[in-house]
Write a structure and sequence with these properties.
Elements lengths: L9 H5 L3 E6 L8 H13 L7 E6 L13 H11 L5 E4 L2 H4 L3 H13 L3 E4 L11 H28 L7 E4 L6 E4 L4 H12 L4 H14 L5 H9 L6 E4 L2 E4 L9 H25 L8 E2 L7 E3 L8 E3 L8 E3 H17 L3 H39 L6 H49 L5 H8 E6 L4 E5 L9 E3 L1
Parallel strand pairs: 1-2, 1-3, 3-4, 9-13
Antiparallel strand pairs: 5-6, 7-8, 10-11, 11-12, 13-14, 14-15
């Protein structure tokens, strides 16, 4: 619950807030340019700096992360929906979004809450009140983002920072890639043995053999090597393959094309075999006797791998498919037994504790602010100007702290409203979602460990306090 005091009008407190939003997509980029331009705009337009909120998404890519995954942008949207923001200052449209649909969604939020947007880049046309015009600008932002991504991708294809099997020599335009003598012969033999493969079993056996030779590289990595034209001194473009004169090939381009035909022909069978033979247990099991992690063992084409105790407990062994099936079934039972009342109680208790701390801090800050206002009134004279300026500065800092606490209290209130309905919805839907969701994440959330014995699995449940039994066997 937000506490209001007679001498603080919270409506006026938030009125005409200005938010400066800045974003760079990598740690190497300098966000200060955007900030300096915003500061210049604020100074030139005599904007009250006490009413400015600075939000920064540093090292956050708009092409890789959705709107919801950008923390500062999400905070901006929350403030807008709470009608706490009248103006947004941002360098350019592509700082807000690189995706056309995301940009249009943001613009609609701006229109809905009467938010004015200022672009500080001289190359940016002013923010338009017409959605059709802003949508057109959104297309330009997306196209530019795609061009940047494409240019980076092409550069990486031509001049990778590192690539297995090659040594990079020289600098800048004089860079050359020569075969690494440590693995050159093995890598060449790997490609040529693949060329000789006639069946999926032949290819899988080659992959198993070179997985060990190349220090236990994954099957996925080995397939990537086979499908990368760089090893033949070429790169793939929209118009076909282009020769790279700065690369000394390990295999001929004709042999590379031959390998692609083999992979295309055997792709489905080999991928299925890799999935079955991979160490793809939902949660790595431990031996119930020695309490150590069990070892994974690959098997032949089309057969599932298995776990076995690394020590002398040979009787402790389980097939990966069977192991995953048992975990999935047990997870459904555990979710059904979760007490939503207990979860809600703990959530509310935690929110109440945080809210109490904020309210206590708010009372303290308001008392300090009231005292400062009294001192300012008493000190209002030309003879004590230095002391007055110091009091005003301190008063502004306290106001900013109060504003920040009010925002946090609003967040708590919003969280409280959603808990009641969401806890039950989550429980009702989670069992169905298990069928579609990545079980790896769910099981790591609900199980701290799984032991394998001769005839059962022992589950150590993370949320034991919300479930009848802390340990389950199956």
């Amino acid at each position: 619950m937000v506490i209001h005091y007679d001498y603080i009008d919270t409506e006026k407190l938030y009125k005409d807030f200005v938010v400066v939003y800045s974003r760079v997509s990598s740690a190497q980029q300098d966000i200060q340019k955007q900030i300096h331009l915003a500061e210049a705009y604020i100074n030139n337009n005599n904007i009250d700096k006490d009413k400015v909120i600075w939000l920064k998404d540093n090292d956050v890519s708009a092409t890789k992360l959705s709107l919801e995954q950008r923390p500062a942008l999400n905070e901006l949207r929350m403030l807008i929906k709470q009608k706490k923001v009248k103006t947004v200052i941002v360098y350019s449209r592509d700082r807000l979004a690189r995706n056309f649909y995301e940009y249009v969604a943001l613009v609609k939020e701006f229109y809905e809450h009467n938010v004015h947007v200022i672009f500080t880049s001289t190359k940016q046309p002013p923010f338009s009140e017409k959605l059709s015009i802003e949508a057109l600008y959104g297309i330009f932002a997306q196209t530019e983002g795609q061009n940047i991504s494409s240019r980076r991708s092409d550069t990486q294809k031509q001049y990778p920072s590192s690539i297995f099997g090659f040594q990079r020599v020289g600098k800048r335009k004089d860079v050359r890639f020569i075969p690494d003598p440590k693995v050159h012969n093995d890598l060449k033999s790997f490609f040529y043995e693949v060329i000789k493969s006639e069946t999926a079993e032949d290819l899988f056996n080659v992959l198993m053999k070179y997985k060990k030779i190349f220090n236990n590289k994954s099957y996925e990595e080995l397939l990537k090597y086979l499908q990368n034209p760089f090893y033949s001194g070429h790169m793939e473009t929209l118009y076909g393959y282009e020769k790279l004169n700065h690369v000394e090939p390990i295999i001929s381009f004709e042999d590379f094309l031959c390998i692609q035909n083999i992979i295309k022909k055997l792709k489905d069978e080999i991928l299925n075999a890799i999935v079955l033979a991979g160490n793809n247990g939902i949660l790595h099991p431990i031996c119930s006797i020695c309490k150590r992690k069990m070892a994974f063992r690959s098997t032949q084409l089309g057969k599932s791998g298995y776990y076995v105790c690394k020590k002398k407990h040979k009787e402790i062994k389980i097939n990966v498919d069977e192991y995953n099936h048992l975990i999935s079934a047990q997870l459904s039972d555990i979710i059904q037994s979760i007490s939503t009342d207990a979860m809600k109680k703990d959530c509310f208790a935690y929110l109440k504790m945080i809210e109490k701390q904020y309210n206590q801090e708010l009372i303290k800050l308001n008392q300090i602010l009231k005292s400062l206002h009294q001192k300012i009134t008493l000190s209002f004279s030309h003879q004590n100007k230095n002391g007055l300026d110091s009091l005003i500065l301190e008063s502004r800092k306290i106001k900013q702290q109060i504003e920040n606490i009010h925002i946090e209290l609003i967040k708590i209130d919003e969280a409280r409203k959603g808990i009641k309905e969401h806890v039950q919805i989550i429980k009702e839907n989670l069992v169905e979602e298990i069928k579609e969701y990545d079980l790896y994440f769910l099981c790591n959330l609900f199980f701290s460990a799984i032991e394998v014995s001769q005839d059962s699995l022992i589950y150590h449940v993370t949320f034991g306090k919300y479930i009848e039994d802390g340990e389950h066997s199956a």
